[in-house]
Amino acid sequence: MKRQLQLFASLILILFAFSACENDDDKPADLLPGYEKPGVLIVNEGNFGSGNGSLSWYNTQSQEISKNIFESGNESRKISASIQSVTWYKNTAYLLCNKADKIEVVNEKTYQALQAPIEDEQLVSPRYFAGINNKGFVTVWGAFDENYTLPESKVAVIDLENHSIKKFIDVPSGPEGIIALNDKIYIANSYTDIVTIIDPSTEAIVKKLKTNTSPKHFAVDKNGQLWVISTGGFAGGTPQLQRINPETDEIEHSIDLAGTQATGNMAINGSKDKIYFLGAEAYPSTTTHLFAVDITATEGPETSLLSGENYYGLGIAPNSGDIYIADSNNYQGEGSVLIFNASGEAKNTIASGVLPNSFLFKF
Amino acid sequence: MSKRILISIICLLNFPFTGIAQFSDSLIWLKEVKVLGLPDEKKYSLGSQVQLLDSTTLARYASANLGDVLSQQSGLHLKQYGHGMTASATLRGTGSNHSAILWNGLNLNSLTLGQPDFSNIPVFLFDKLKIHLGGGSTLYGSGAIGGSILLNSEAQWHDGWQINLSQTIESFGTTFSGIKARYGNGSWEGKTVIYHKYSQNDFPFRNTTKYGKPSERQDNASYRNYGLLQEVSYRLSSRQSLSFKAWYNHSADEIQPIMADNRKPSTYTHLTDRSLRILSDYRLHNHLGIWQAMLAYVRDYQNYDDKSTIATSRGILKLQYEKTFETGFRMKAGIQGKRIFPEVEAYPENTVQNRIDVFLLNSYQFFPWWKAGFNLRQNFVSGYRSQFAPSIGNEWLLWKTSKRQLRLKANGSRSYRIPTFNDLYWQPGGNLDLKPESGYHLEGGLDYQYQTSGWRFHFGSVYFYSWVNDWILWIPVGSFHSPRNIKKVHSSGVELNGDVRYTLGHWRWNATTRYSMIQAINQKGLSHTDRSAKKQLPYTPRHKLVGSLTSHYKQWHFSLSGNYTGKQYTTPTNEGALPSYFLMDVNVGKSFQKDSFKGSVQVTVKNVGNVSYQAYDNYAMPGRYYQVQLNFHFFTSNK
Q1: Which of A111, A154, B281, B547 lies at a C-alpha separation of 20 to 30 Å from B3?
Q2: A310 and B562 in contact by Cβ < 8 A?
Q3: How many other CB atoms are there within 10 angstroms of residue B209's CB atom?
């Protein structure tokens, strides 16, 4: 019996020793790679709530892709969020994350965090960032209510000296795209038909400009004019591109995008005279399109430049005019980036992270 | 029924302590059950694998939920969103809605989502449970593609009282209390179970997703689960019996946030589930055969974060007839009708679905060494294309001596899953043109048993092959998502299980192990850019091993249980993965007995190695923790 007890005790010890082995993969943060030009930052949103957003860097010269560059720059700390957008401002990259709600503030070259992320009880679903005069303005959806509307929509004002939230400004529902132009901040309130204009020095709303239903994003053309794309909303309205004069803050021109089913994703080319946008055919079709329209156009495009499935985001390389399309892969795991030249001929397809949604170019 | 047999039954079915039941008792018990009638999965589903977890095993898990015990004892892989949270399982490389949980033949899967929640079913309710692996639609209907969990309870017609009390205290503010009483006079019997579990679940962990990787306590992961089960059985005559069962289960769970959202109360959500399951059953045994009628009602209610409510009600009527011929042939025929009323705002008004199943099960003992079965089921759904599910099985006794026995088993089946209500009716996106998912399953295995004085050895091996076609996925369509029959998965694998028992004097040793190797391969990409073709399904580890070593000495018992989970991918493209992990529990207990009173105390150390791991990407799991469990049993017998 004694022998059996000994056998039992040694078995416990062996198994204990085996199960107690634990690895710690942390590596020192010296010698971090820098993501220098020429290249493209790919923002991979990740599946909502799964915390599997990531950033990839595509070196356009060597055609090499580096994945999970946030984790590489931060001692394997996972970003553990959906990344809605990334904005570069003064050598710093602002990573706007939801689920978990936070703004990671990182070095624009190494993606190493400069500090703990910006978090606040009211910072629920931050969307997009615009920087001006050392202040950051962030559109914030707030929580959905029981009818799935967004009654707590806000713009957060961040002091970029110490990266603390100064205040929240109430804005109309669903603030999405945001842009700094002419010493003003423009906000597309996508659940309404309003573009809100804020004076960054007083941090107060100076104007609510009525637009087409569901304005989403902005672009500035070569003449310094501001373009806003709107989807027309779910009730069957017509999508539009509208040109706002930033001197008068009035709409001077509207282009109907009938038949395009524009999703609100847009980008402008390097010479800032052509606007690209995505459209998704209505149910039950799964086809998506890329359209292009000149800033001088009076009518929307009749045909699409490219079409395929799963177009989810887009970017136009400012030097070459190459078209980058983010392919969602049906939201089933990691997606792809499709690269075409300016005339729409396929150049390359590269592997991205989960649900790529946008591109930032460094040339 | 002799007193000895009766006591054996009491010990095995109702006395939840390791170390009381002897092997000789279990043999007698098996004979008794045969008298009462073998369950369907034994009689008709020949050649497939059915694992039984008996009361002795379940007793150690009195405070656990179904998911915990299955993942530890049968090695099936749980997909669980945090500790104690909503859990589904992947059986034989299928999806989380390809397994069915059946309570006395009643399917408990959510009609809206399709999958069962393994975390909301307390093990304490059941005296035994069975896992039937592989395609089981012929026997159990929709959803039984990868396997089925069978929770059955039968009247024991015991004359007297039996009362079990169980109390567990665990780390992180977890308590479980349960009372189980069975009473009767031989012609009628009642069983009442009341249970309550609460866990604060604020375990410490290192938050590897936060700046500086701080140590934190888990927030918003508490859960409460309580309920009541009442059964009444009445023997009208020696040929007729009537039974009634009602089970109310309530669970209120906070939803554990991903690690990065820990300590952010503004993001916290919670979920409430309430289910009422009522079942009545009438059986008549006459010269023509056995007739059975079952009438059931199930209502499920779920509320997410005090916002959206999802509820379904269903009524079920099942009639079946069974006949055993002296030639060794037996057959069972039946029809089941189901009417389902969902209450979901996103469905069109007055959505109702009717389902009818007809089935015919046959088995034949050709020779003492050869049994074969052939089964058919046809399913009809209102306004919707239906499905045919046949199965065929064989068992051969290849070799038999007084000490050794070798069996060869083979089974082939077709199974199906009707699209969920969300798949069909959710607005926008619901797709009425969906086909049912269908699965083909082939398996073959060898079972070897060896027994001498002191030793008992059992070894089983299974090889399986399965295909799931028309697997439903929600994909982006226009401005929303819609389900389509687009995925195709081909799985194959090997399961090995071994069980050795050795008795010497006061010592009894028992070592068990179950290993599975599963290749679950997605067959095609969804588009030309999709890289998921020929890749392993996410959250389906290729290797999984569970094992335990138990030793009894007089009234003491010690056990070690290990669980190895291999590397698992987190996405269909296999570009992200969670590392493998090995967890071990140590359990020590002592039981005592005086007349008709028995008791036991056991202490368990969970995750003894304090391994930090994630079972699901970004969800924290606890390190080492402790559990103390007390059981009391009291019985009287009038015979």
Answers
A1: B281
A2: no
A3: 20
SS3 A183: coil
Map tokens 């892989």 to a residue.
B77
Q: φ, ψ for residue B13 (rounded to 5)?
A: -90, -30
CB atoms within 10 A of CB A251: 18
Q: Tell me the HSE value of A354 on the side-chain side, using a 13 A CA sphere.
A: 25
Query: Touching check for A239 and chain B: CB below 8 Å?
Result: no
Look-up of token digits 């304490």: B124
Residue B73, φ and ψ in degrees, nearest 5? -95, -30
What distance in Å separates the CA atoms of residue B467 and residue B226, rounded to the nearest whole number?
39
Residue A278, amino acid: L
Tell me the per-residue pLDDT of A269-328, one tens digit each, with 9 for 90 and over.
999 999 999 999 988 899 999 999 999 999 999 999 999 999 999 999 999 999 999 999
The reply to whether omega before A284 is within 30° of 0 (cis) is yes
DSSP labels for B45-60?
Answer: STTS-EEEE-HHHHHT
What H or E segment, with its residue span, contains residue A29? none
The count of residues in chain B is 639
Q: What's the predicted TM-score (pTM) here?
A: 0.89
Edge to edge, the sheet with strand A250-256 lists A215-220, A226-230, A240-245, A250-256
Q: Using the beta-carbon criterion (under 8 Å), do A332 and B530 form an inter-chain contact?
A: yes
User: Which residues from chain B sit within 8 angstroms of residue A141, using beta carbons?
Assistant: none
- φ, ψ of residue B490 to 5 degrees: the values are -125, 120
pLDDT in tens, B296-318: 999 999 999 888 889 999 999 99
Distance CA(B273)–CA(B300), nearest Å, equals: 7
The ipTM is: 0.86
Work out whether strand B147-151 and strand B99-103 pair parallel, antiparallel, or are unpaired: parallel
Residue range B2-635 forms a domain whose CATH class is mainly beta
B514 token code pair: 């179950």
Q: Do A19 and B611 count as a contact with CB atoms less than 8 A apart?
A: yes
Distance CA A157, CA A131 (A): 10
- CA B53 to CA B149: how far, in whole Å? 11
Instruction: Report the distance separating Cα B75 and Cα B124, nearest Å.
Output: 20
Q: ω into residue A38 within 30 of 0, thus cis?
A: yes
